[in-house]
Specification:
Layout: H1 3-18, E1 31-37, E2 42-51, E3 54-63, H2 66-79, H3 84-98, H4 123-146
InterPro entries: NIF_FeS_clus_asmbl_NifU_N
Pfam families: NifU_N
Protein name: SUF system NifU family Fe-S cluster assembly protein
Length: about 150
């Protein structure tokens, strides 16, 4: 990656960290899941309002480093309005990107998420970037287990 692209990606990450989108909690039957990263102290709670297998709204709360909070902000922006299965597909693509593996996003729009691809060079930070995504996956799994 060129240094200009690295700089742009850093700016996108810092913008989401300093001005998080969708921060807060959802009530009234929202799917909610909390996850912690004990190695660095990051804590994320993801809440989603799902109707007819579509994510109507998504919010997050938490504390942590710029990577974990920016990733949570980007995730909520990305998944709002998507069918649950498409959100899970993006989550899988994001995990592959974080592991430095080849991925094919097909016709899915990763948006600002691509700014986090440089995290794959820092194995200790991958858990920070994927924390909110794991909470998304676990909340969906929990809902499926209850049905």
């Amino acid at each position: 990656m060129s240094s200009n692209l690295d700089q742009l990606y850093r700016q996108v990450i810092m913008d989401h960290y300093k001005n998080p989108r969708n921060r807060g909690e959802l009530e009234d039957g929202a799917l909610t899941f909390n996850l912690n990263n004990p190695t660095c102290g990051d804590r994320i709670q993801v809440s989603m309002q799902v109707e007819d297998e579509k994510i109507k709204d998504a919010k997050f709360e938490g504390e942590g480093c710029s990577i974990s909070l920016a990733s949570a902000s980007m995730m909520t922006e990305t998944i709002k309005g998507l069918p649950v299965d498409e959100a899970l597909q993006i989550s899988n693509i994001f995990s592959e990107m974080m592991l430095g593996n080849d991925y094919d996003e097909g016709d899915l729009d990763l948006g600002d998420l691509e700014a986090l691809q440089g995290v794959s060079k820092f194995p200790a930070r991958i858990k920070c970037a994927t924390l909110a995504w794991k909470a998304l996956e676990k909340s969906v799994q929990q809902k499926e287990d209850e049905e």
